Amino acid sequence: FKVSRVETTPYDGQKPGTSGLRKKVKVFIQPHYLQNFVQSTFNALSAEKVRGATLVVSGDGRYFSKDAIQIITKMAAANGVRRVWIGQNGLLSTPAVSAVIRERVGVDGSRATGAFILTASHNPGGPHEDFGIKYNMENGGPAPEGITDKIYENTKTIKEYLIAEDLSDVDISTTGVTSFSGPEGQFDVDVFDSASDYVKLMKSIFDFESIRKLLTSPKFTFCYDALHGVGGAYAKPIFVEELGAQERSLLNCTPKEDFGGGHPDPNLTYAKELVARMGLGKLDSESEPPEFGAAADGDADRNMILGKRFFVTPSDSVAIIAANAVEAIPYFSAGLKGVARSMPTSAALDVVAKHLNLKFFEVPTGWKFFGNLMDAGLCSVCGEESFGTGSDHIREKDGIWAVLAWLSILAHKNKGKLDGDKLVSVEDIVRQHWATYGRHYYTRYDYENVDAGAAKELMAHLVKLQSSLSEVNDIVKGIRSDVAKVVHADEFEYKDPVDGSISRHQGIRYLFEDGSRLVFRLSGTGSEGATIRLYIEQYEKDPLKTGRESQEALAPLVEVALKLAKLQEFTGRSAPTVIT
Ligand code: VG1
Ligand code: CO
């Protein structure tokens, strides 16, 4: 093949957000749009990460992925990359990409140093919906801010990109290596099985035999909903073939370019079918719900965990996994190095860390902040309130890992009881946890696609209020006399304990005397307008009071939050788009 230099001009707004660049497909398919971003990424990397390097290119299979893979492959060849690795049909979940970077060895002994992941995660897909791209580093984790800032700077000045226009399209539906010869020598495209490296890693972490006993027990029933995302490519090999679950326990496990027209976000609003099956919906099915249910997002890094007629909040989920990991999961049998959560995630994990005397870290939203801690051996288990849970086995959150962690805990708690009358249920485990550690009532209100200017004004108003706590407390008392006093208010700022880098403006916090918190953030993953996220949390230690309905328990704080922020005044919205 030959190398062509193509002239181009910058596009505005190619700034990577919380997790890469996400835009409508119609934006991505503009001439040179994707190419500008990819070349800007190559130019932001050090030379040895490009020339002669091995790169993974794959994603959640959403609309435009197949075209994007061919374009990126041709650009990689022209930029002197030695090998491109592609999951069969272009499919690799985000956690599988991370595993492939860290674990896979090519037929010629090669190892990957980075990846382009093609996904907009939980955002809908299809010609009128979202596409996305992000770059991951040699540790398997998302590029840190130092790199994403550089990529963005490059997109503002780009003048040309390199591409091997005459390189023939590679058939990504069949596994195998195709070799090409270019001006600098050989270039290989290696199409490989999407699941095998990941399955192997999962088998090295969990006790598959004990999970198999649980899943094949006539007492236990199971359901997994991939919402037509890439999780489906892993669900069958793991849950059915390895662990003996019945095939009919898999819902929506065929990956689709448009996720079947749905919103591939595993929460109580969007995972409607699963929610109904689990007995938590408005239109519940007549049959007895399964004991355990879970869902994933488009790129399968998120998870929602459900018991029979029972929802586990993600903040509780990570705390419960941390509390039980050493006994229930072989990978952690030597103990946890530490635990971490994102700032808006509830403090349930903090309480576990204190009880178990574990190192604890609070980082800004987004998985990239956990990576440094893990690389430095400071953190084993971490999680976010946004249905993200994971560990240092890779450098991304991992939806299927979280399901396997829960199944391991269930298998452990039910050891010797699988023939008894009653299994220890998901709900039993959560209620027992609350009895031991107290309960963090928690909810998140999302206001999606609000006017960007109005959202900014609202945030500015909240920051301004923070300059006088006594004024804040006067306002709060005027709204509800039954909530505690605000004792601290700030914008969250994080200093990375490993590299000393500082991230500012990571969310507006109001902290109350009784441990309650209100947090306000603007989303960094949307593709249109602004999304305001409001996180509300209240701690209850009294075991007699941990059984309340959470929206009812949190009602006073919610009222304070909405009025303090003048939410309706600024946005015109009287209700959130999604409550989780
Ligand atoms: C959201 C979540 C955040 C998560 C991010 C990426 O970001 O709040 O916790 O890490 O999505 O998840 P934001 O900026 O919109 O709040 V995923 O599954 O979209 O890669
Ligand atoms: Co995701």
From TrEMBL:
Pfam families: PGM1_C_vert_fung (PF24947), PGM_PMM_I (PF02878), PGM_PMM_II (PF02879), PGM_PMM_III (PF02880). InterPro entries: A-D-PHexomutase_a/b/a-I (IPR005844), A-D-PHexomutase_a/b/a-I/II/III (IPR016055), A-D-PHexomutase_a/b/a-II (IPR005845), A-D-PHexomutase_a/b/a-III (IPR005846), A-D-PHexomutase_C_sf (IPR036900), A-D-PHexomutase_CS (IPR016066), Alpha-D-phosphohexomutase_SF (IPR005841), PGM (IPR045244). Its cofactor is Mg(2+). GO terms for molecular function: magnesium ion binding; phosphoglucomutase activity. The keyword Lyase does not apply. It catalyses: O-phospho-L-seryl-[protein] + alpha-D-glucose 1-phosphate = alpha-D-glucose 1,6-bisphosphate + L-seryl-[protein]; alpha-D-glucose 1-phosphate = alpha-D-glucose 6-phosphate; alpha-D-glucose 1,6-bisphosphate + L-seryl-[protein] = O-phospho-L-seryl-[protein] + alpha-D-glucose 6-phosphate. Residues 14-161, 197-306, 315-415 form the Alpha-D-phosphohexomutase alpha/beta/alpha domain. One of its GO terms (biological process) is glucose metabolic process. Keywords: Carbohydrate metabolism, Glucose metabolism, Isomerase, Magnesium, Metal-binding, Phosphoprotein. Its EC number is 5.4.2.2. Catalyzes the reversible isomerization of alpha-D-glucose 1-phosphate to alpha-D-glucose 6-phosphate. The mechanism proceeds via the intermediate compound alpha-D-glucose 1,6-bisphosphate. This enzyme participates in both the breakdown and synthesis of glucose. Monomer. Belongs to the phosphohexose mutase family. This is phosphoglucomutase (alpha-D-glucose-1,6-bisphosphate-dependent). The lineage of its organism: Eukaryota, Viridiplantae, Streptophyta, Embryophyta, Tracheophyta.
